[in-house]
Amino acid sequence: MSPVTSELHSMSRRQQILTSAETVLKDKGIEGFTMDLVVKHAEIAKGTAYKYFKSKDEILAVISARALEMLLHDFEKGAAKESNYTAKIRSICFSAYRFYVRHKAYWNLISYMERPEFEIDIKDYIRISQELQDFCEDIIETGKSRGEIRTDLPTREGQLVLWASCVGVVQFLESKKRILRNVHNISLEGMISTYADMITKGIS
Fold first, then answer.
1. CATH for 55-203?
2. CA pair distance 155, 138, nearest whole angstrom
3. Residue-wise pLDDT tens digits, 154-167
């Protein structure tokens, strides 16, 4: 096998493993995700999988980097429609929720990756995570310079609070959605709208 053919074979095998891993993730969720299920779906030996990935966490980190890229794209797309910078922040709140609705497995994976004991060093994951943080910080900084966002708001802390609150609200809506709809007659989109209004009013 020539070097080029060997490289293409390796890329194909690696992609096969990742594709199977994504299928398992969507079918079983993060709690049910195992390397055994991945290799079974890919129809390969476990040793073959470990030639390309050191652990299931390394596979999850690669998938999570893709998920973060998708989320960043949604943030950028939503924010681009708004000219006011508080409105851009509001769009991020909605984009986070709608990403969760469309890609629940990916959203749960992103949350899983942020647990403190996760110590995998995947450059793509670290890079895209930083790009997402930078994007939100740039909106806050530009909004402050234009007088649309409070100048006394610490940019880094503001970005972190925005992300933490998005995660928390989405998790709350998931756990309480039946009560909100059936008992309180409150729509989930209505809850997100109220949350986004509270966030933007607090920073303007």
1. 1.10.357.10
2. 9
3. 999 999 999 999 99
